[in-house]
Amino acid sequence: MPQTTVEEAFSDGMAPRTVTRATLDKRDYISEASRQAEWEGIWTRCWLFSGLVSDLEDSGDYFVYPLGRESVVVLKDEQGDIRAFYNVCQHRGNRIFTSESGSIQHVVCPYHGWRYGLDGLLREIPDEQRFCPEVDRSQRSLKPVKLAVWAGLIWINMDPDAASLEDYLGSIMQNLEPYHFERMVLAKHQTVHLDANWKTVRDNFLEQYHVDFIHPQHASFVDCCNSENVLWPYGHSATMVEGFVTNSRYPTPEETPEHLVMALRSLGMDPAEFTGRVADIRKAVQARKRELGPELGFDYSEFSDSQITDVWQYDIFPNTFMTITAEEVWVYGPRPDATDPDRCYFDKWTISIPREQGCDLKRKLTLNPRLVASIDDERPQHEVFTAADVIAEKHTLTITLDQDIYYLADMQAGMHSRGFECAVLNEDEVRVQHFHDWVEYYVSQH
């Protein structure tokens, strides 16, 4: 059975597909002109995931979101509201925040001591009487950046006239409500510098055509070739892959595959019981999790059966992926390099239900073997490394993402070849086409 694709409009009437199809010309991946056009047409106009509400517990807590040559600080003010500002002093343009995160009482420029409140208002100017004419504090306060909070996730938009995040995400918000990301805890935060254009990275995660070839382990626990795709307006899309199954391209094995054995045992299930009926595992796991969840402190009542066992990947334009299971979510994606179209940064946040709500260590039961984070744990350190570190096995983003990273530099290098002009896509790469169609749309609207 091949992949299927449906198109869903949002209530604002915007159609899922653009009028014209993009060609995926290699110049779009390597040229300075494309980098500049995308900056003006996409990065300064779209909603961007920037971080977690859980990183801003107290008044004065902040983190910095770097994007290209820009820097945005996100902080919690005295009233408990979360705000975003351009990270630049209004005196001489000095960058104020030089650490990626921390806690402060006042915003003070380290260069000349101009002091701002956590609300961004200019409060103090050293030797203020020596400015002539007098400084208009209302005009020299920090410049705000549009911000929205949804499900514990913080989003920013540099376009002050942009539509709301609710309009931008449409029905995606309702689809993801059962997961309650805001109740999850941060298990890992990682950033890797890649020798690839940000779109090269996006393309990789927008199709399963490559899975059989570079992710052979997937054949024993998911069925990527039968995925169900959804296309939405504004360049968003999703795909659903059935979990606790085997790849339907191959005969169903007689014995439970190794990758499913550990998952079954962690749920208190006997893998031997499924000898000769491996196809029954998915339904059995759905029933077992509904039964076991309340015992361990987790409620599956809001979830569909599919959401309990299957892997959903939501693709939020322009650069955010969410790989979602009921107990764990990866929020990840590329940011463009400030000057080089052949490079980008790749960020990954791993959030999950706390082990207190999903594990019973005495009975050796867990709803998901990867649950390691506790409610009481300190925030994990932000790991920053290179693709070479991943290939040398000094760092890992999980075996699947490591395998992807191994190939990305070669993909980017090939874009420079005289022997290649543009991509050709099949029907299973429909989300790649959809993404590039909207890239072209946004760039053309600028």
Question: Explain this structure to me?
Answer:
The protein is an alpha+beta fold. The protein folds into 2 domains: 4-44 and 170-445, Naphthalene 1,2-dioxygenase Alpha Subunit, Chain A, domain 1; 48-161, 3-layer Sandwich (Rieske Iron-sulfur Protein), CATH 2.102.10. Helix content is 24%, strand content 25%. The chain is built from 12 helices and 21 strands. Helix 2 crosses helix 12 (430-445). The chain is globular and about 85 Å long. The two termini are 41 Å apart. The model has no long low-confidence stretch (mean pLDDT 96). Its cofactor is Fe cation. Pfam families: Rieske (PF00355), Ring_hydroxyl_A (PF00848).
CATH architectural group of the largest domain = Alpha-Beta Complex
What general outline do the C-alpha atoms trace?
A: globular
Distance between the termini: 41 Å
Provide the CATH topology of the largest domain. Answer: Naphthalene 1,2-dioxygenase Alpha Subunit, Chain A, domain 1
Q: C-alpha Rg, in Å?
A: 24 Å
Specify the CATH class of the largest domain.
Alpha Beta
- Biggest beta-sheet profile: 9 strands, mixed
Q: Please provide the count of β strands.
A: 21
The domain count comes to 2
Helix content: 10-25%
Percent strand equals 25-35%
Can you give the mean pLDDT? 96
Per DSSP, the total helix count is 12
| Order of strands in the sheet with most strands | 1-13-14-15-16-17-18-12-21
Low-confidence stretches: none
Q: Give me the secondary-structure category.
A: alpha+beta
CATH superfamily heading of the largest domain: Naphthalene 1,2-dioxygenase Alpha Subunit, Chain A, domain 1
